[in-house]
Amino acid sequence: MLELGLKEFIPAATLAGKAPRFDHNSDFNFGVFSEKFDYVIARSIWSHAAPVQIKQMLDQFVKWSTPEAVFLTSILKADYGQDQYRGDTWVGRSHESDSGGVVRYRLEWIKDECRRRSLAVDELKRNILDQVWLRISRAK
Ligand SMILES: C[S@@+](CC[C@H](N)C(=O)[O-])C[C@H]1O[C@@H](n2cnc3c(N)ncnc32)[C@H](O)[C@@H]1O
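That is the input. Now the predicted structure with S-adenosylmethionine docked in place:
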């Protein structure tokens, strides 16, 4: 996906000028560049990730982001009365699996996890397919 995106969508001059660096670690370690981020984007990641992986991403965001940083992430919401994913492994295609699949989360659970880390969550009005975007930042 990354190679295709770089080839098809990013002009060569932009790549040469910006010189982006990429890392593929599978344990959501945001500290591999020893840099603090202003923005983190996880599109269609929490719709496959386990609760423990989401908690890890939030912990890493707190540790490796600047004070005004924004974390944009998309989720599939658990419908009213529907339980959220409780497993401890990724669901869907990955470097380890060719099987599709998605998971759902309750917004209240995500808000609780954010609150524990002094983070605030806003649900954005703009969605992708049936996923909703969340904007996470430090609580004021
Ligand atoms: C549904 S795709 C979304 C890709 C991209 N963000 C987009 O919106 O097009 C999920 C991606 O997460 C990757 N992935 C799965 N498990 C991962 C892990 N433990 N760490 C990092 N990436 C993982 C998958 O290989 C896949 O490329």
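The chain is about 25% helix and 25% strand.
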